[in-house]
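Alpha/beta hydrolase: structure tokens wanted.
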Amino acid sequence: MISKIQQLSNNRVAHYFEQGEGEPLVLIHGVGMQAAAWTPQIEYFSKYYRVISVDMPGHGQSTKLADDASLQDFVNWTIEFITALGLGAVNLAGHSMGSLITTGVSATRPDLVKRMAVLNGVYKRTPEAKDAVIQRAEELKTGHIDIETPLQRWFGDSEIEQQAARKVKSWLEDVDMSGYATAYSAFARGDAVYADQWSNIHCPALILTGTGDPNSTAEMAIQMASQAKNGKAVVIENERHMVNLTAPDKVNNAMQAWLETSV
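Answer:
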């Protein structure tokens, strides 16, 4: 993977990894992660595509946004990043918070998105679920980070899951607390922002999750897919929130089929 920096407005930079040639595939990770969280997909798809995996603002080496940044600010940042690369329309995939960003870009700037995919996305959380995630966001603003709870929620005891857990733990330990808190707050309050705009998404849309993900449920995936004009839900049995790391072959197969869908 080649490490690159893209200059953006206001002296900000976006850091990303790039590998391969061909049709562009842009990947956006979830809150607390970094561009390397897509490594199984970068390695697989770079044989056929120009894969670009970007650090979200305030993550990895990308400049953070203002402390009060909203989900729309992250969407606008992503639009600026894609535009700055000069690639035209891209295949855009996001995981977790990255899926909310992907939905926002796809709904508001369809000219920039050839195909879109959301992995482990959230859609119209229940009031109880929303309150819980907002509470976690507020705790982060105090400088307290609980790493063990999400690890227990996201991973089981199998060897592949524990390998992934060790990587995720290292990324969470490495995160910029200010950037993490800002992104988590936007994520906590952002699930409904573009939820009613799925009908504006006409490109091929893959919506994927695992049956073991209690926050990004199969029901949410099916609802999102049903709202899109050309949506397909894929639910992988017995997988949790970090499905792209714990079941990479199944995720890559689903994404390959999506990327081969005619537009």
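The chain has one domain: 2-259. The domain at 2-259 is CATH 3.40.50.1820 (Rossmann fold).

Cheers.
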